[in-house]
Structure formats: structure tokens, C-alpha cells
Design goal:
Length: 444
Amino acid sequence: MTHAIEANCDGLVGPTHSFAGLAPGNLASEHNKGDASNPRSAVLEGLSKMRLLADLGLPQFVLPPHERPDVGFLRAIGFAGADARVIETAARQAPELLNTACSASAMWAANAATVTPSADAADGRVHFTPANLLTNLHRSLEGPQTTRALRRLFPDEARFAVHDPLPAAPGLGDEGAANHVRLCAEHGEPGVNLFAWGREAWETWQGRFPARQTLQAFEAVARRHGAGGAVFARQARAAIEAGVFHNDVVCVGARTCLFFHETAFEDAAAVQADIRAAAAGKFEPQFVEISSADLPLADAIRSYLFNSMLVSLPGEDRLTLIAPMEVAETPTAKAAVDRAIASNGPIGAVRYVDVRQSMRNGGGPACLRLRVALTDAELAATNPAQRFDAALHERLIAWANSHYRDRLAPADLADPQLLVESRRALDELTGILDLGPEFYPFQR
Ligand code: SUG
């Protein structure tokens, strides 16, 4: 067996992190619309989570923020003149579009791409399809820069295949790994790939909130990756209507364990049977299902219990949940965790982390990371400057403290100085993470 370990690639929160309420169906984003944000706390919280995971012994990488405000987008929709004028005119004539151009949403790296590790891919390479994220305008801007970022972190084409995003058509709406779970006995062995989808390409969607991921998008991803052990499962419509905009709000899995809420799937029994069949001869799946009676769906969404990271730590037999502290503050969710641990099942421990700034936009610990199972040789072929350790942590704390504001009200997005500050920060980061020449549009 080839040895592999699951690395986490976290999106670094950008200097324009704000609460603009851009994501319908994401209740936290809707509720916090208009509040002032704290970009500096947001980036430091994310860095502390990376530090915890690195200290626990898992390889950790940093994915750089995107250039925001996205002046190129504003120009493409007709705002013209010098950069400052583009921003001022957009602020006056179309503030929603300026908010859109400022979103730091690339921080939620679970939506960066869908990943197939080499053990599951037909050609033995690690495959990535960056998500087109086309359901929400602000997120649809991320694909090209994410593709560039993944090609920088995983540059060796003999080992890594970073595809282009799927064509940007509504029938192929793709939100990346937020709707994907891989189960396996060991990370280096062939596994089962659960792809959860919300609607079909040709379906007339009647819902109040959008179903972002289509079945046809995931079938295309599995096909181009040559992904083995594929299982496709429909998300429950009722869950989407209740605010489950990604399946990772109600489901997380690792190794042989799928941890999910009763309402996660349209037909949970069929999903379990399909996973069992796909795992036959490889491993025995373990299902930890939490009922609505024990944990009402509203509490699952409020606490983000299932948006915990579920990690397999070196030397530990049982899995560890890296949960948002909102779980500890929600009695039903806390009790569900404590019961799962006491039952001697696959989950053995919990650690709570503070990612409140991200949580207020609907992004928990699991949203902030893209997991990539890597063999030792693949790990050695990544960009070493993006590998997170104590020294990089210190450097990024100093970098954030010197460039990030500690308060950003919606009206502040109209300040052309924010663009200048952001670019200065990203220019310096380009050197720190060795991102290469012309990484950002403003550097070309
Ligand atoms: O796409 N929030 C993100 C949160 C993504 C969470 N990711 C996962 N569940 N994996 C979204 O809804 C809000 C931004 C704003 O409202 O300004 C936002 O885009």
C-alpha cells in the first residue's frame, strides 16, 4: 500500500472580508447583512485554525486570497476610467455590484475545487476541477484565479491534473468539495466518492432558495477525473429550503465514517446501501446519523455541527472533530457530540475553534479548507512556500497586522484607498508564498 495523508489547504481571508448578504439561502449571510466586519480578526482566526491542524500533525497549506475589489469584473460590466473612478462610480450607481466585486468569498476553500486523489483516479494522478460557482454572482468570479492558485500549489503535471472549471452554464452549476465526501480504509487506498447534488440540469427548480450543485456537473467531474467508487446522492429538498445551501452543512465524513443529519439526503437508506455496495471488498462503512429529535435541523444549521472538520490524526485510532465553538454554545449540538464520543463509535474527540467572522457569512471550519489526500511523493512536489508552519504563521500574523483593517462597514467598500491597501497586501504576499510573476491581474 502507498502511504498517503490528508493535507488541508485553507483559504486565507482577504482584506475586504465583509457582510454584504450576497448569498440567498445561506441564513447567516442573510442575517448579518449590513453589519461591520473585522477582516483582521477574520484572517487571524483562520490562521489559528491552520496552526492547530499543523500542530496536530496534518500537512497544512495556504491558498492566497483573490484580488478584491475585482476591478476587472467592474470594467467588464461597463464601469470605466481610472481604478478609483471605477469604484466610485460603481458605489454610486450600483452598490450591490461593488459589494459583489469586493467579496472575500474565495476564503471558503471547500468550494475551490473537487479533488480526486491518485488512489481513486484512473491515470494515477491527483485531479482537481475548480468549481465554477455560478449560482451566486460574487462566487462566479473565483474560478480562473482559483485555477491559477491550484496550478501554483500543485505544479507538477506528471503528478497533478488541475483542470479548467466546468463550462459556466446553469445546468453545470458546481460548488466543489462542499458537496463531496471521500470514504476509505486508508488515505492511500481506493475509496468511495460520495457526490451530493441538489438538482438536475434540466429540472425547473421551484424552491425558495437555489439548489446550487447539479447532478450533471458532478457526473462530468467524476468522468474527467476517472474517479472510482462514485456514488451520487440527492440532497433533501426540504433541507435546502431550510437553509442547507451546501451538503457540508449537514454531513461530513472521513476514513470509514459518515457523520450526517437525518435530513441530509432525499433517501438516506438508499445512500447508505449504495455506499456499502461501493465499499464492498474495500472497507466496512460506519454511519453515525443524528436524528431531528436529538438535534433539530435549525440547531444543526445554527451551530454548524456538521461543518466540523473530521480528521484522522497520526497515532489516533478514532477520528477527531474540529468543531466551531458555536457547537459548544448550542446545547442540543453539544449533547449530540458528547453522545457520539461516549458511544465508542468512530468519533473519539472534539476540539473547538473560533472562526466567528467566517461563521457569520455561513462558513465553518470545514468550509475554510480543501482536503487533498497526498502520497509522500506528491506532498514533496507541492510549492514549499505555501506549506504552513510556525514560522509562516508568525510571518502572516505580522503581515495581516500591518495591512488589514479591524473594521469594515459596508459603506467603506466605496473607499478607493481599500483597493490600494489590498493590492499592497497581496503584492507582499506574492513574495511570502512564492506565487510567481503575474499571479494577480494587477501585477500584469
Ligand atoms: O457560498 N458565503 C459562502 C459560504 C460558503 C460556505 N462554504 C461551504 N459550506 N463549504 C456561500 O454562501 C456570503 C458572502 C456575503 O454574503 O457577503 C457567502 O458567499
